Every structure is written in C-alpha cells, then in structure tokens.
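#help-structures
NK: newbie question, is this the right format to request a structure? protein is Site-specific recombinase XerD
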Amino acid sequence: MARWLRCWLQTQQGLRPSTREGYADHVRLHLVPYLGRIELAQLTARDISRMFAALAGRRTRYGKPIAPSTLHRIRATLRAALNAAVREGLIAADPARMIRLPAPSRPYPQVWTDRRVAAWRREDERPTVAVWTGYAAERRPGHAGSTWTWTGGNWPSTGNWCTPTPD
C-alpha cells in the first residue's frame, strides 16, 4: 500500500496545491503508518476499519480527538487512491467503499445578542460560527442608533446586512 499510495500521489494531475498538500499529509501521517505494510491486493475492509478505529482514539497536537470531518477527508483520500487502483486493474473493488464513519457535526451560525456579547466579554465564550449583525454593537451605550432592521433576507448569512431604523 505504501508504494501504491506514493505512486498515486505523484501521478495526480491538475490538483490545487492545497489539495495536493492535504492528500500528502493524509498519506504520510495516517494511511502509510497504518496500511503501508499491507499489499494492495490484500487490503480488506477490516484493515481499513481498524485504521479508523485507531485514528478515532488519537489526539491532535492540541489534545483534542481527531474530528469526524477529518476522518471523512482521510477516507476520501484513501478512496481516491483505491478507485485509481481499480481503474488501473490492480484490484477488483475498493474495500473502503462500505466503511462507515461517525457523522461530522455541522456548526450553525448564532447571532450575537446582548447576552452572548456579555458572555464573550466575561468568559471569552463564543460560538463556533458567529454572525455579528451590527445590532449588538449598536445597542451598546455611546453608539448611534438603537434599532436595526434586516434588509438582506430572513436569516443572517453571507450577503445579508442590517440598516439602522430611524428612531
């Protein structure tokens, strides 16, 4: 597997530099250490499941478990390499195709209300994805305007904005 993964990586054409770097990191840090000694034709879904179980128990350099989204990206890299091996006739099927991983959680934006701003100032508590609407900023004493109206849609998102409502 180690030889095939490196060969596959070197022959990839038209990849953005960041994609190539991500693939190389997955191959070097995760795929070769766990699967590198197994012959490509001998690789099984059980081998791959063991690798992901081991990866799920590892910690990042920040001491946190590897995120499910990272496991999905590692699997996508492995599947790309194995599907290339199928196309080249080196294996009959991709053994990673049936591997199930934990679903990644998706952070949802949270509007910065006065209460959230106070918690942020007090405890540095902040949501993963925050939408600063202008409402919380302008409601603070010493700022002009006290009421804001959405002009860009029903929910704050990219491209939406607030405008002051005349008092």
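mod (FA): yep, format's fine, and the tokens are attached above. Helices lie at 2-11, 17-35, 45-56, 68-87, 114-123, 135-138.
NK: thank you!
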